[in-house]
Amino acid sequence: MNPQDRLKILSSDMDFELAEDHNCPKIDSKKKYSGFVHDAVMPNGKTIPLLKTLLTSACERDCHYCPFRAGRNFRRTTLKPDEMAQVFIGMHRAGIVEGLFLSSGLIGGGVSTQDRLLDTAQILRQKLGFKGYLHLKIMPGVEFDQVEQALRLANRVSINLEAPNAKRLDILAPHKHFSDELIKPLKWINKIRSANSNKTGWNGRWPSVATQFVVGGAGESDVELLTTTEYLYQELKLRRAYYSPFNPVKDTPLESQPATNLQRESRLYQASFLIRDYGFSMEELPFNQQGNLPHDSDPKLSWAKLHLSNNPIEINDASKEELLRIPGIGPKGAAVLLSERNKNRMTTTEELRKIGINPLRVAPFILINGFRPTRQLSFL
Ligand code: SF4
User: Fold this and answer.
1) Which atom in ligand 1 lies closest to the alpha carbon of residue 104?
2) Best residue among 17, 63, 72 to mutate for probing ligand 1, ranked by most atoms within 8 Å of CB
3) What is 3-209's CATH number?
4) Which 3 state secondary structure label does DSSP give 371?
5) Which fold has domain 308-377?
6) Does the C-beta of 173 come closer than 6 Å to ligand 1?
7) Annotated domain spans of the chain
8) pLDDT tens digit string along 312-371?
9) Which residues contact 151 (CB under 8 A, 6 or more apart)?
């Protein structure tokens, strides 16, 4: 089988992997490759066609949820680093893809597997002159020097924790070591980035760092997931945690476990953004007694109903942190509002609408120039 055909197999196997914001498979005139090029949102907000692929779908580990686990009967294939680099650069030069997301099953241990990923990246950057987006996976059990090398080659690196702690990881992947194999490389990344100028990174910038959790596969609560997420954002400067709802895979030990409700995924993202961008602490999130977020309401709205309905915020005097607590106002809206009210004191809901803030959403929680906006809105 030629490298292009093997790449098609490897890339279509990646459909379960969600470590970039991707929309839907790209279906257009580039028929030869359609189905495994994804429109992906980059860390800078731009959308590009991204090839997501594995170097090999063979794996020596037996993680309980994973379609690639050792011993599972399905067609497996492999590309060598040079083959992968050549096929990818051909697609890139033909204008089919702009970026590469490269992962791998584990063969010969984490160190050897990481070497092959790094070899591919080096061929692309140094021999073939590829300057575009490159997301490299860091394998469990890698060495410090390999992490350092990945940071010099990639625009983004990621290490999938899969579970929020060692006890839960034991259910999903009993042969992975949470602390030694997964958290340790994340700590190294933080150490390398703090100790060295970002000029050392690819194109003069350190890559952003992400992780992924398999949600609902190990009976974990939202509190467990978000406690670890908070630690990663605050202590290890993670850029993004992804929540991938558990989906049972045939012929795996977890095949009879139910799939995770997609609403749970959406609430976890909302809560994680409240922690990362809005200054919320874990104690302020509306967990139930089982440590889970309600599925039927946005966590920011739940908080605001409890705390702001009777204590509305005066939008002319509020700090940025206070504005961010109001449902309907995000970081951009808060910045525009702060700048506009420096020019003129706000007096009507129409002024809010003009700067892109939906008056109906914010109305129950604010005062404008000392008054509840309800009366103005009743005339709309
Ligand atoms: S090591 Fe990775 S590819 Fe291999 S079984 Fe575990 S999750 Fe799957």
Assistant:
1) 3
2) 63
3) 3.20.20.70
4) strand
5) DNA polymerase; domain 1 (1.10.150)
6) yes
7) 3-209, 308-377
8) 999 999 999 999 999 999 999 999 999 999 898 999 999 999 999 999 999 999 999 999
9) 157, 189, 192, 193, 200, 201, 202, 206, 207
